[in-house]
Write a structure and sequence with these properties.
By secondary structure, the chain is of the alpha/beta class. It has a single domain, classed as TIM Barrel, CATH 3.20.20. The chain contains 14 helices and 13 strands. Strand 6, helix 5 and strand 7 form a beta-alpha-beta unit. Helix 1 runs parallel beside helix 3, helix 4 runs parallel beside helix 5 and helix 11 packs parallel to helix 12. It comes from Streptomyces ossamyceticus.
Length: about 425
């Protein structure tokens, strides 16, 4: 491996920023003072970055119009984060946030355009990403530009094939890179867990693990009913982010490609409030044992205010801070664990044992919670092994296995 894994002290730890007042509707009347107050609270936990989201309808209300004032708000937020000592990843096309889908009106009703396949809609998104990239480029605290949050949540209303997804991602990743410039920061994309576990889902593990500058994973405990199936204190739940990191690493062509646990959190009732601090500690410590890990970004910073209607119940309790801005026990646990991990001087050792994953697009669910492969991996983990994941078509590639430090293969069945 040309690039050694980073020591634990070099891992990045941050949070997905949800404005305390008004949730993401705060963009309608952006208040820099309130945003800075939120960001200062986040920095006070010892975290080093935030991931931020504007709303697509406010940024681009017409296919041919990107609002300068909305872009300026986003740039101002990035600068406020810098004042608090925080780096920033910006998500461009929102898209999907906390069970709500945000579409500009020019994509809806009798104007409907498939956001993944309509040439005009794809080009409009490319224009938006180029515009955002140019506006943000050169800011020293900018981590990079992501296409948008979990865009695969939009496939239900925008039918698309895997080949069309590949073209869509390639087009938008190129636009984001053009906007940022060659050295402007990371260019990434994200998908929710159906990309990894969903049989025949059009967003594929290969797309997640091979497109963009690193791989992002969102290992949620409610995906495939993981926490309900195994219990909130179960090894399956406590090792889920670790497993997601290893699964993502297996699909990468480059063994040194980093993996970012970009969303994970403790949603009630899947994780009861009393179990949330322990869950946070276990999740961070176990994920930090992966040599490919870039960092962990918790979801989310602040609870949704219950004065806002129609959110799923779990969305009201996901914050590190409550809706009054007070830190919750999970915030204290997360902060302390981050400090402990940063004090660790050495990188984790390579995983010498790997479990071979043999599946097709139509049987991908074997690798998700409840699937035979997932359960076999978790059994090995509980027995004291630290298993990596190797795809069946790489299991005979001795050079590849050597590069990953794998000396023993275990097969299911």
């Amino acid at each position: 491996m040309d690039t050694p894994p980073p020591p634990a002290s070099a891992l990045r730890f941050g949070v997905n920023y949800t404005p305390r007042r008004g949730w993401f509707h705060a963009w309608h009347d952006f208040d820099p003072g309130q945003a800075r107050e939120d960001l200062a609270q986040i920095a006070g936990l010892g975290l080093d970055h935030v991931r931020v989201f504007h709303l697509w309808p406010l940024l681009q209300p017409n296919r041919a119009l990107v609002r300068t004032s909305a872009v300026d708000q986003l740039v101002r937020l990035v600068d406020l984060a810098a004042e608090c000592g925080l780096d920033v990843l910006v998500d461009g096309v929102q898209g999907h946030l906390s069970s709500f889908d945000f579409y500009p009106e020019w994509t809806r009703s009798w104007h409907h355009r498939n956001v993944f396949t309509d040439p005009g809609a794809v080009e409009a998104q490319a224009v938006l990403l180029r515009t955002l990239g140019r506006a943000l480029s050169g800011r020293p605290n900018l981590l990079g530009l992501q296409l948008g949050n979990e865009l695969n949540n939009l496939v239900e209303h925008n039918p698309v094939t895997a080949a069309e997804v590949d073209r869509y991602l390639d087009t938008l990743l190129a636009a984001a890179r053009e906007g940022l410039g060659a050295d402007g920061g990371l260019v990434t994309h994200s998908a929710y867990d159906a990309a990894w576990y969903g049989d025949d889902h059009p967003f594929t593990p290969q797309a997640s693990a091979r497109k963009g500058d690193l791989t992002t994973v969102h290992p949620w405990v409610f995906s495939a009913d993981c926490a309900r199936r195994y219990g909130p204190r179960s090894p399956q739940v406590h090792h889920l982010a670790e497993y997601g990191t290893e699964l993502a690493a297996a699909y990468a062509l480059d063994p040194a490609r980093p993996v970012w646990v970009q969303e994970t959190g403790a949603p009630e009732p899947h994780i009861p409030a009393g179990d949330a601090p322990g869950f946070a500690r276990a999740t961070l410590r176990n994920a930090a044992g992966c040599t490919e890990l870039w960092g962990v970004t918790w979801w989310c910073s602040h609870d949704v205010d219950r004065a806002l209607a129609d959110f799923p119940e779990l969305e009201y309790t996901l914050g590190l801070f409550d809706s009054s801005g007070h830190p919750k026990p999970i915030a204290e646990a997360l902060s302390a664990t981050v400090a402990e991990l940063r004090a660790t001087p050495a990188a984790p050792p390579a995983r010498t044992t790997a479990l071979v994953l043999d599946c097709t697009p139509s049987t991908r669910s074997v690798s998700g919670p409840g699937g035979a492969y997932f359960e076999a991996w978790m059994r090995l983990r509980q027995e004291g092994a630290r298993p990596a994941v190797v795809l069946a078509d790489r299991a005979e590639d001795t050079a590849y296995l050597k590069e990953r430090g794998i000396t023993e293969l275990v097969r299911t069945g």
